Amino acid sequence: MDYLKKRALKKLSLRKKHHTLRTLPLAYTSAHTSAYASDSASTTSQTKSVSWWQEWAFNQAQDYYPSLLNTQEIDEPLNFNTNDYLGLERSKCFAPLHAQLAHLLPLGGLSSRLIGGNHTVISALEKTFAQLFGYETALYFSSGTILGHSLAPLIQSLEHKPQDIRFFSDELNHACTITGMRLAKIPHSHKHIFKHLNFQDLNTLLHQHPSPCQAIFLEALYSMDGDSPKIEDLKQLTCEPNRILIVDEAHSLGIWGKEGKGLISSSLTHPITDHIIGMYPCGKALGLNGAFLSGPNYLIDYAINFAGGFIYTTAPSPMVAASLLCRLYMLKHLQPLRKRLTDISLSLCHQLSTLGYHTKGDGSPILSIILPSNHAAIELSLYLKNHGIYTTAIRPPTVPSGTSRLRLSLHPFLNHNHLCYLHSAFQKAQKTLKGLLL
Prior knowledge:
44% helix, 438 residues, 16 helices, globular, alpha/beta
């Protein structure tokens, strides 16, 4: 990490010298905010405005999480095509909050954050995320895909001489990470793909290709197989000073770890070291959008200056940022939902395995049913749809050839009757489709 830090600080210093250094402008507070505040003084400066939003969001979280935990029924419980793993959006518990926010904040970001879109609620969101998750700082991108496309080029742009930086990527990493590496124009000889979660293979590659900086890209929870790396393996990877670990927490945020903070924040050292960069897209369990790039201060300063996906994008919605801020404060209270979700996953996996289905992801919110052919995946999906169960057939090239599947994105509001109905539907499908499935 010393390599990246030295290179970043040098390039930032040159920009400062030539008066081209980009910094986020003073965050603004919309006129709506002062109308809601208890006194106008609470919004007269950036510091007070950020603190005001933090206090407001904390109080809202205390008010709203009990209704979420007490929710019994939701609309479309058998729709497994969304990644709303905790049911935050399905529950509709936040409808009153969103109505309130419509009077407080603009819906659109209005401009780039470097020009006029740097609202105080976004600054509060970034500050709160870094505090809660143990990072020096965080930067909120408009989407996880934009962040995924931006990160590898950002790291590659710090290379001083050829082969100073080598990239190591799990073969099942998300398409946005793969695309990011392609956009970075990394030479083929500098990019090494290791077998899925095979850390023996990774360690072999790391020793075969030494360099001043080795950037390792992983996911905390894989979106198609529902599996995760072991904490011991991650800790081992951070022992060498020339290694940087980039972990995508898209599907684990809100689900894994202490207080739903994901794999890194819950399991590795605090504060999180310079050897770890976290990517936290918010479109899964948190039920919204946008993504946090989290890490050391120099990385965020460098991203503000050199990440095109951040610089030239319209700022995120202040309304969404405020709702997300509330949900961050709420995460610590949602352990009953996480426990319920795990129990549902284990139970359903056991039921389907008993019927003879090949499943992956037991215990996770992602349950995949591997099928013998593309045709089998399509037919089973259509059969279930006709019985009110919605799940899409996932086929190559999204997944490797020979691993077509149905992917069930589970949630904690499935009850005993739902599980019995699912068991019955999958059992009847075997008879109706006459050997096609197994």
